[in-house]
Amino acid sequence: MIPLSVPHIAGNELRYVKECLETGWVSSVGSFVDRFEKAVAALSGRKYAVACVNGTSALHLALLSLKLEPGDEVIVPALTFAAPANAIRYAGCYPVFIDVDKEYWQIDPQKLSDFLYQGCVMTDGQLINRATNRKVKALMPVHLLGHSADMDALLRLAREFKLKVIEDAAESIGSLYKGRPVGHEGDIACYSFNGNKIITCGGGGMLVTDDESAAARAKYLSTQAKDDGVEYIHHEIGYNYRLTNLQAAVGLAQLEMLPAFVQKKQAIARRYSAAFASLEGLTLPGQASWSTSTFWLYTVLVDESRGKNSRELMKVLADQGIQTRPLWHPLHTLKPFKDAYAFKITITDQLYRQALSLPSSVALSEADQDKVIAAVTDYIKGVKR
Ligand SMILES: *Cc1c(COP(=O)(O)O)cnc(C)c1O
Q1: Rounded mean pLDDT of the chain?
Q2: pTM (2 decimals)?
């Protein structure tokens, strides 16, 4: 069995966890939480980092920290995991779904611009979605699959229309945007350390920002909004979103290996791309000039006009013990988001049908890569096994 993407425990994880156990610092305070926060802040070039129980809670706190209010709208790509849209709903806000571009599969600045200019109106300095009459307050680009979104184009629009920017960098820690770490551009950025991500805490997340008051507010809300730790006085509803020292110990050990993990993922991608380059009927992941991708999940498109399709390829590979996965069901078509507005979405639906992510674990051996390559090549060429 060749899995899609599994953790690689190969450094100081055991040593650090043992230190937690031996000293008794296992819970939500401890030196590893502080060290992990400092290290992620440094890696992303940000002043502040707040560790969270997972990436979804980091996104939720980001929205609350930037003072979004129930009923406000937040723009997200239609092609992504549901977590960012769920976080938007936790905050009582509504997602607005924008299409992704055909080449890089990231939120499309041109379509965003069309929505902002044609679909919205500025009234008393406040942007209003004409279709829903709701206030459009923020943009949440997702850096999909380890490739960064087109941030300069997005930030230009965000500035013009006074939108806050929260980067969902859950899939893309270690990637670069124009040579800078992904997560460096928006008001806040969020990472995930879930088990299938490039590095993991088991489960975990982190919010990073240069905004001191947003960071303080995120920390406050993540610790039950406690205003007096002796008398237990709270002035608002808080959350228990803290990361434990045990998880941070694993996360810090993993973070130490991130550069090596990124190189491994990039090497796997180069190998796949070289093998598939001349294969007609398969489209390789496009790489924008601004992006240095980690190839978190190496994903291809199967050309449907040749009588092949991604779901059949998924079954053929599964029969050979190779685990793959389509991209996420377009969010704007799902029941939990039926009250959300979707603007002229076409590419997302095509990519959803055509895309398949191939095994991309950091420790994937060359022999296993060769098995994947041979199995994909045979299917696309119509060779029966
Ligand atoms: C994984 C993921 C998240 C959520 O992270 P968790 O740590 O699993 O909560 C958010 N957004 C995207 C795009 C993701 O892939």
Answers
A1: 97
A2: 0.97
